[in-house]
Amino acid sequence: MIVFSAERLESLLREAKKIAILAVGNPLRGDDAVGVFVGKAIKDRVPADVYICEMMPENYLFRIASGNYTHAIIVDAADAKTKPGSIFFIEHDEIGDMAISTHAFPLSFTVDFLEGNGIKTIVIGVQPKNTSISEELSEDVENAAKKLSEVLIYVINKVFSKDQTSSRISGSGAHHQKTKK
Prior knowledge:
Shape: globular
Largest sheet: 7 strands, mixed
Helix content: 25-40%
Oligomer: single chain
């Protein structure tokens, strides 16, 4: 587990040409819905395709694998035994060690599938406080979700604005367009 930072995210996205964001979680299990909350908050504010997967990210895998994505970001609740609302990167070898969300397939399957299709996959976890039956996020997790949303919006827009500037200078004409799903 690596503490989340905008700088590290920007570094991980440096070579991104097209990004898929998988917003994962159960909207009926309190803080487990943090990924869905973040996905809804950023959906029309980033030059990336945001998939509100809820509990079934595996339902989007073939669409993402065939969509010419270079990068995928998965946002989900993850129990890393840290302070509620903590935001962190989950390394691929740590996925099996953490209790991550309530979806049908293990998240490691999703990551392995995406990586196996040449898509660099970044997993961002948020430490939940309460995953009992509820449609509300706890205050700590809601604050973390708002912070994470703002950082994602800032960094993804920054990464693509740099890329567009250099593309215009080089005359390649490359551009990134939001696609609604």
